[in-house]
Amino acid sequence: MSVTQPVRPPRRRAPRNSLNPDRILDAALTLLDRDGAEAFTMRGLAQQLGVGTMAVYSHFRGKDEISDAVAQRLLDTIELPPGGSEDPESELREVCVGVYRLFTEHPSALELLAGRPLRGDDAIALIDRMLGLLRRAGLGRADAAHAHVALMQYTVGSALWNTRRARALCQEGARERVRARIAALPSDTYPSLVALAPELLCQKSEGTGQFEYGLDGLLRGLLGGTPQV
After folding, report:
1. How far apart are CA 212 and CA 131, in angstroms?
2. Keywords in UniProt for this one (predicted)?
3. Could you tell me the CATH superfamily of domain 75-171+211-222?
Protein backbone atom coordinates (compact mmCIF):
# COMPACT_ATOMS: atom_id res chain seq x y z
CA MET A 1 0.00 0.00 0.00
CA SER A 2 1.52 3.30 -1.08
CA VAL A 3 1.47 6.36 1.12
CA THR A 4 0.72 9.68 -0.47
CA GLN A 5 3.25 12.31 0.53
CA PRO A 6 1.85 15.72 1.46
CA VAL A 7 2.32 18.26 -1.28
CA ARG A 8 4.10 21.44 -0.26
CA PRO A 9 2.57 24.62 -1.63
CA PRO A 10 4.87 26.21 -4.19
CA ARG A 11 7.08 28.98 -2.84
CA ARG A 12 5.82 32.34 -3.88
CA ARG A 13 8.57 33.91 -5.94
CA ALA A 14 9.31 37.58 -6.35
CA PRO A 15 8.66 39.15 -9.76
CA ARG A 16 11.63 38.89 -12.12
CA ASN A 17 14.21 41.68 -11.77
CA SER A 18 12.41 43.13 -8.74
CA LEU A 19 15.18 42.33 -6.24
CA ASN A 20 17.43 45.18 -5.14
CA PRO A 21 19.58 46.04 -2.08
CA ASP A 22 16.81 48.07 -0.41
CA ARG A 23 14.35 45.17 -0.63
CA ILE A 24 16.95 42.81 0.79
CA LEU A 25 17.63 45.09 3.76
CA ASP A 26 13.90 45.58 4.38
CA ALA A 27 13.49 41.81 4.47
CA ALA A 28 16.53 41.39 6.75
CA LEU A 29 15.08 43.81 9.31
CA THR A 30 11.67 42.13 9.10
CA LEU A 31 13.26 38.73 9.62
CA LEU A 32 15.33 39.93 12.57
CA ASP A 33 12.46 41.71 14.33
CA ARG A 34 9.99 38.88 13.76
CA ASP A 35 12.05 35.72 14.19
CA GLY A 36 15.24 36.75 16.00
CA ALA A 37 18.92 36.76 15.19
CA GLU A 38 19.13 32.96 15.06
CA ALA A 39 16.78 32.97 12.04
CA PHE A 40 18.96 35.40 10.12
CA THR A 41 20.64 33.20 7.52
CA MET A 42 21.11 33.67 3.82
CA ARG A 43 18.68 30.85 3.16
CA GLY A 44 16.10 32.28 5.56
CA LEU A 45 16.49 35.71 3.99
CA ALA A 46 16.00 34.28 0.51
CA GLN A 47 12.83 32.52 1.67
CA GLN A 48 11.57 35.78 3.17
CA LEU A 49 12.13 37.45 -0.19
CA GLY A 50 10.71 34.58 -2.25
CA VAL A 51 13.88 34.16 -4.29
CA GLY A 52 16.71 31.68 -4.60
CA THR A 53 19.68 32.11 -2.28
CA MET A 54 22.04 32.95 -5.15
CA ALA A 55 19.85 35.90 -6.08
CA VAL A 56 20.73 37.52 -2.74
CA TYR A 57 24.42 36.88 -3.39
CA SER A 58 24.12 38.88 -6.60
CA HIS A 59 23.68 42.01 -4.44
CA PHE A 60 25.67 41.19 -1.29
CA ARG A 61 28.74 39.02 -0.85
CA GLY A 62 27.37 37.36 2.28
CA LYS A 63 25.75 37.67 5.68
CA ASP A 64 28.49 39.89 7.12
CA GLU A 65 28.07 42.46 4.38
CA ILE A 66 24.30 42.48 4.90
CA SER A 67 24.84 42.85 8.65
CA ASP A 68 27.02 45.92 8.05
CA ALA A 69 24.39 47.40 5.74
CA VAL A 70 21.64 46.73 8.29
CA ALA A 71 23.74 48.50 10.92
CA GLN A 72 24.14 51.49 8.64
CA ARG A 73 20.41 51.64 7.93
CA LEU A 74 19.63 51.55 11.65
CA LEU A 75 22.25 54.14 12.55
CA ASP A 76 20.87 56.41 9.85
CA THR A 77 17.60 56.61 11.83
CA ILE A 78 19.34 58.22 14.84
CA GLU A 79 18.69 61.94 14.78
CA LEU A 80 21.76 63.67 16.15
CA PRO A 81 20.94 66.83 18.12
CA PRO A 82 21.79 70.17 16.49
CA GLY A 83 25.40 71.04 17.22
CA GLY A 84 26.80 74.18 18.76
CA SER A 85 24.86 74.26 22.01
CA GLU A 86 26.49 75.49 25.22
CA ASP A 87 25.57 72.25 27.01
CA PRO A 88 27.65 69.37 25.63
CA GLU A 89 26.52 67.08 28.48
CA SER A 90 22.88 67.36 27.38
CA GLU A 91 23.88 66.67 23.78
CA LEU A 92 25.84 63.60 24.85
CA ARG A 93 22.85 62.40 26.81
CA GLU A 94 20.56 62.83 23.81
CA VAL A 95 22.94 60.91 21.53
CA CYS A 96 23.20 58.00 23.99
CA VAL A 97 19.43 57.86 24.52
CA GLY A 98 18.95 57.78 20.74
CA VAL A 99 21.33 54.83 20.37
CA TYR A 100 19.66 53.03 23.28
CA ARG A 101 16.17 53.48 21.84
CA LEU A 102 17.30 52.32 18.43
CA PHE A 103 18.69 49.05 19.77
CA THR A 104 15.79 48.36 22.14
CA GLU A 105 13.36 48.85 19.24
CA HIS A 106 15.35 46.29 17.22
CA PRO A 107 16.58 43.85 19.89
CA SER A 108 17.36 41.00 17.52
CA ALA A 109 19.36 43.32 15.29
CA LEU A 110 21.23 44.42 18.41
CA GLU A 111 22.17 40.83 19.25
CA LEU A 112 23.36 40.29 15.70
CA LEU A 113 25.39 43.50 15.50
CA ALA A 114 26.66 44.00 19.04
CA GLY A 115 29.84 42.04 18.42
CA ARG A 116 30.65 43.71 15.09
CA PRO A 117 32.64 46.93 14.68
CA LEU A 118 30.56 49.82 13.36
CA ARG A 119 31.54 50.92 9.86
CA GLY A 120 30.40 53.56 7.42
CA ASP A 121 29.68 57.27 7.41
CA ASP A 122 26.85 57.20 9.95
CA ALA A 123 28.93 55.33 12.52
CA ILE A 124 31.87 57.66 11.93
CA ALA A 125 29.65 60.74 12.33
CA LEU A 126 28.27 59.37 15.59
CA ILE A 127 31.74 58.66 17.00
CA ASP A 128 33.06 62.03 15.86
CA ARG A 129 30.13 63.88 17.45
CA MET A 130 30.58 62.12 20.78
CA LEU A 131 34.34 62.72 20.84
CA GLY A 132 33.86 66.39 19.98
CA LEU A 133 31.28 66.82 22.73
CA LEU A 134 33.53 65.14 25.27
CA ARG A 135 36.37 67.49 24.35
CA ARG A 136 34.07 70.51 24.58
CA ALA A 137 32.98 69.30 28.01
CA GLY A 138 36.58 69.68 29.19
CA LEU A 139 38.06 66.19 28.89
CA GLY A 140 41.62 65.69 27.73
CA ARG A 141 42.49 63.60 24.70
CA ALA A 142 42.97 60.27 26.48
CA ASP A 143 40.02 60.80 28.82
CA ALA A 144 37.74 61.71 25.89
CA ALA A 145 38.67 58.48 24.11
CA HIS A 146 38.14 56.36 27.24
CA ALA A 147 34.86 58.15 28.06
CA HIS A 148 33.49 57.54 24.56
CA VAL A 149 34.15 53.80 24.87
CA ALA A 150 32.63 53.73 28.37
CA LEU A 151 29.46 55.48 27.19
CA MET A 152 29.03 53.15 24.22
CA GLN A 153 29.69 50.07 26.35
CA TYR A 154 27.10 51.20 28.87
CA THR A 155 24.53 52.18 26.22
CA VAL A 156 24.77 49.05 24.07
CA GLY A 157 25.18 46.78 27.09
CA SER A 158 22.12 48.29 28.77
CA ALA A 159 20.05 47.82 25.63
CA LEU A 160 21.09 44.18 25.42
CA TRP A 161 20.51 43.58 29.16
CA ASN A 162 17.09 45.23 29.21
CA THR A 163 15.76 43.56 26.05
CA ARG A 164 16.79 40.11 27.29
CA ARG A 165 15.37 40.82 30.76
CA ALA A 166 12.09 42.11 29.32
CA ARG A 167 11.82 39.01 27.12
CA ALA A 168 12.39 36.73 30.11
CA LEU A 169 9.88 38.58 32.30
CA CYS A 170 7.24 38.45 29.56
CA GLN A 171 6.97 34.70 30.01
CA GLU A 172 3.82 33.68 31.86
CA GLY A 173 4.26 33.85 35.62
CA ALA A 174 7.90 34.97 35.42
CA ARG A 175 7.50 38.06 37.60
CA GLU A 176 5.54 36.15 40.21
CA ARG A 177 8.22 33.45 40.37
CA VAL A 178 10.94 36.06 40.89
CA ARG A 179 8.94 37.78 43.64
CA ALA A 180 8.24 34.47 45.37
CA ARG A 181 11.90 33.46 45.18
CA ILE A 182 13.06 36.69 46.80
CA ALA A 183 10.28 36.61 49.39
CA ALA A 184 11.42 33.15 50.45
CA LEU A 185 15.01 34.26 51.09
CA PRO A 186 16.08 34.36 54.76
CA SER A 187 16.53 37.98 55.81
CA ASP A 188 19.35 37.13 58.20
CA THR A 189 21.40 35.70 55.32
CA TYR A 190 20.51 38.27 52.65
CA PRO A 191 19.47 41.35 54.67
CA SER A 192 20.05 43.99 51.97
CA LEU A 193 18.39 42.05 49.15
CA VAL A 194 15.30 41.26 51.21
CA ALA A 195 15.03 44.83 52.55
CA LEU A 196 15.28 46.40 49.08
CA ALA A 197 13.15 43.84 47.26
CA PRO A 198 10.22 46.26 46.64
CA GLU A 199 12.59 48.79 45.04
CA LEU A 200 14.43 46.17 43.02
CA LEU A 201 11.22 44.67 41.66
CA CYS A 202 9.61 48.03 40.87
CA GLN A 203 9.03 48.47 37.15
CA LYS A 204 10.60 51.94 37.39
CA SER A 205 13.93 50.13 37.82
CA GLU A 206 13.57 48.67 34.32
CA GLY A 207 13.78 49.92 30.76
CA THR A 208 14.49 53.46 29.61
CA GLY A 209 14.05 55.04 33.03
CA GLN A 210 16.69 52.80 34.57
CA PHE A 211 19.03 53.38 31.62
CA GLU A 212 18.71 57.16 31.92
CA TYR A 213 19.31 57.00 35.69
CA GLY A 214 22.60 55.17 35.12
CA LEU A 215 23.52 57.37 32.15
CA ASP A 216 23.12 60.54 34.21
CA GLY A 217 25.35 59.13 36.94
CA LEU A 218 27.95 58.02 34.41
CA LEU A 219 28.00 61.41 32.71
CA ARG A 220 28.38 63.20 36.03
CA GLY A 221 31.30 60.97 36.92
CA LEU A 222 33.01 61.26 33.54
CA LEU A 223 32.59 65.01 33.18
CA GLY A 224 33.26 65.94 36.79
CA GLY A 225 35.96 68.51 36.41
CA THR A 226 38.62 66.58 34.50
CA PRO A 227 41.29 69.08 33.36
CA GLN A 228 41.70 69.46 29.59
CA VAL A 229 45.07 68.51 28.10
Report:
1. 20
2. DNA-binding, Transcription, Transcription regulation
3. Tetracycline Repressor, domain 2 (1.10.357.10)
